[in-house]
Hints:
42% helix; binds NADP nicotinamide-adenine-dinucleotide phosphate; seven-stranded parallel sheet; 16% strand; Rossmann fold; alpha/beta; 12 helices; globular
Amino acid sequence: xxxxxxxxxxxxxxxxxxxxxxxxxxxxxxxxxxxxxxxxxxxxxxxxxxxxxxxxxxxxxxxxxxxxxxxxxxxxxxxxxxxxxxxxxxxxxxxxxxxxxxxxxxxxxxxxxxxxxxxxxxxxxxxxxxxxxxxxxxxxxxxxxxxxxxxxxxxxxxxxxxxxxxxxxxxxxxxxxxxxxxxxxxxxxxxxxxxxxxxxxxxxxxxxxxxxxxxxxxxxxxxxxxxxxxxxxxxxxxxxxxxxxxxxxxxxxxxxxxxxxxxxxxxxxxxxxxxxxxxxxxxxxxxxxxxxxxxxxxxxxxxxxxxxxx
Length: 310
Ligand SMILES: NC(=O)c1ccc[n+]([C@@H]2O[C@H](COP(=O)([O-])OP(=O)(O)OC[C@H]3O[C@@H](n4cnc5c(N)ncnc54)[C@H](OP(=O)(O)O)[C@@H]3O)[C@@H](O)[C@H]2O)c1
């Protein structure tokens, strides 16, 4: 296993869980942060102050490490330029620093959304970052395309699951939609398994989808059934009309622009949410590194520590 890793996005939902997992495994982590860390509490973590805009900080971040995990990214934004600046241009700067410093291995945390770049600004930017990486001279490059990730610290899917555990399923898409999910701890396990593949061992090049392994994707009906099973009480499905969602998304975007905020729900994001097929396939990654997911949605919903309802 690589013993020194440079990590971006360590202050985010996935990155926080990832850095904790790496530290537990005894990995020395150098992590990028845009805000000053409260204290340098852990001797295994060296914080580098800077952003993806800052080539000097990125050189410092990746200098001498065995592997780089690029987990920073914009997941919400009020315009295309924001996604492009962070996800495309910022990623390119990191790839360039990685090459300048001669770091052999890089893992890009892309997204299943990159499979459909036409759907949203976010999806386009994740796809374009992958393309930049593919055309760079990076020696060993792996791209993870996780589907929607949930778990402790998540702000996006939590309301859906909390409402479900109260007996209501707010459906944001047609009932035949096929969704997929991945618990953050399974994603962390996949990244750590990737690290086990040393440069002299099997190369893990290419792009890999990740989900919790539920075959054929979850329909809204199935999610309601799982919720009812875990609650031991019925779940009522509440389809939100497409027109109402579109109006809400448009209003949210206008408000966010007015307040200079980064919105999650926008008309762009809605196209992603309502896409009919987010089924996923782990088989390529399982073949490449032997990782398989361990946590089903049913198990996670049953764990009250994660989805406690007052
Ligand atoms: N969550 C999901 O369901 C999901 C699914 C598939 C793929 N992904 C990908 O996984 C990655 C992490 O997602 P997340 O859910 O953990 O998002 P998040 O909670 O919003 O965290 C984003 C991270 O990126 C950092 N960041 C953003 N802009 C940056 C910049 N210009 N320079 C340096 N750092 C910057 C943030 O730093 P600050 O703390 O300073 O803001 C934060 O650490 C993203 O690349 C995302 O596309 C997420």
